[in-house]
């Protein structure tokens, strides 16, 4: 969007969007995300028996080299407080999904590492998640709109990152 004129914003295509239309548009983005995400997390929870926070952590570890990340970094990436992350990590460790591994290079660093069981569960969760995303996002939007949506979200993330 270009600079504001009065109470209207000008879109790249030249259309005028009022303040109300702009706020409504953003509300639809948020509602679509929350509805889809909630349904997806509920289905993953039912099919793989993972809470949303646990799912996010396992997927991050699955995608990391050696299936491990420093616990402090993982807490930040999962948007959890140190205490909140510790509780989730404790539950994951009790379920034999992760183990804690001290760093050989820096005694202040502790890694969260997927166990064999954790790797199996994470791979199953990723498969279920991909299936749900195909049904709930890729099929309704199609390939082109799905790629545009991903590109738009990447642009927003990069433009607004701290």
Brief rundown of the structure:
By secondary structure, this protein is mainly α. The protein has helices at 19-48, 52-62, 71-77, 82-94, 116-160, and strands at 8-10, 16-18, 68-70, 98-102, 110-114.
Description:
There is one protein chain. The protein is mainly alpha-helical and 162 residues long. It has a single domain (26-141), classed as Arc Repressor Mutant, subunit A, CATH 1.10.10. It has 5 helices and 5 strands; from the N terminus they run ββααβααββα. Helix 1 (19-48) runs antiparallel to helix 5, helix 2 (52-62) packs across helix 5 (116-160) and helix 3 crosses helix 4. Residues 1-11 have low confidence and may be disordered.
Descriptive terms for the model:
5 strands, mainly alpha, disordered N terminus, Arc Repressor Mutant, subunit A, two-stranded antiparallel ribbon, single chain, globular, 65% helix, 162 residues, 3-stranded antiparallel beta sheet
């Amino acid at each position: 969007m270009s600079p504001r004129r009065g109470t209207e914003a000008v879109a790249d295509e030249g259309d005028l969007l009022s303040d109300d239309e702009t706020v409504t548009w953003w509300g639809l983005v948020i509602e679509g995300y929350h509805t889809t995400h909630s349904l997806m997390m509920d289905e993953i929870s039912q099919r793989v028996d993972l809470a949303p926070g646990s799912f996010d952590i396992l997927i991050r570890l699955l995608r990391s080299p050696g299936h491990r990340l420093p616990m402090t970094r993982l807490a930040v990436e999962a948007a959890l407080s140190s205490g909140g992350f510790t509780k989730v990590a404790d539950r994951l460790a009790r379920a034999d999904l992760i183990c804690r591994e001290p760093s050989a290079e820096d005694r202040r660093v502790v890694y969260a590492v997927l166990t064999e069981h954790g790797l199996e569960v994470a791979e199953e969760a990723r498969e279920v998640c991909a299936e749900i995303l195909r049904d709930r996002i890729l099929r309704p939007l199609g390939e082109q709109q799905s790629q545009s949506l991903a590109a738009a979200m990447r642009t927003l993330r990069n433009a607004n990152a701290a």
